[in-house]
Design brief:
mainly alpha, about 0% strand, transmembrane helix
Length: about 300
Amino acid sequence: MSTVAVADIPGRLGRFVLRMFRPHVYATYGLLWVLALEGSAVALTGTAWRPDGATWVRVLSVVLALLFLRMLDEQKDLAYDRVHHPDRPLVTGAITPAELRGAMAALTAVMAGLNAALSATAVLLILAALGYAVFLAALERLSAAVRDRQLLNLAVTYPVQVLLGVYVYGSLAAAGTVTADRRGVLLLGLCACVFLHFEFARKTAWEAAPGARLYSADLGPRGSAAVTAGLAAGAVVCQVALFAPDGVLGLLPCLTAVLPVWGARRFLTARRGGWPVLTATGFVVTTYLALAVRAVLLP
């Protein structure tokens, strides 16, 4: 590789990040997710919560982990993208697999270094999430069923998100900030329902192009819509179980459920197009934001 080509790698990576990672989207999601999870975990102990230096290490680690996963997904989906998304950077040669792998190695080193300032447990937990993601990429290459069957793929890939949640909660427990108990399981379940509601919503439609990776292609439009709505309901159930003792004010985040209710009504009455993704995105943002604000205001 020439000196000029090497010098252009940061620019190529930067363009890839701006196009495929959309920092304003992923960074906002990572920020709100960590603040909601950490804030709720601390508030449930009856302790006042305010973000500190460790909080921002967790936020940055999760955002960088999401970037790592985006780079990994781009590589493992290359064959699919050649057919369905021929304008993607890896397909067009705007970035190469070697450049993405080098960036992933650098991200791993940065995350390990950041979390070394928290605890050895934090380092192990963030590396476990990344390691599982790499394992899954290899598994998809070996197994056509895991690669092509949408629901099976979700079942084996979603635990990466769970492991990132465990990283946030586990690093808090390792620091002695919270005591791991069943409330931690409910919090992680709440986050899972919120994310999976969005995941199903964006892949639920009345029509599906040949080869499109939609859950509604397997479950049918109504079945996929039922799962999408049910996941939002699951998030509300988790909130009630966790925060009912705090009274009406503690349950205010449940009001965000109006968005999936409206989304389900619109999807089922339209009988065409897809689930209104704006309602699903709004549910994620407003739920996490409401939980973070609740943690600041209560107890």
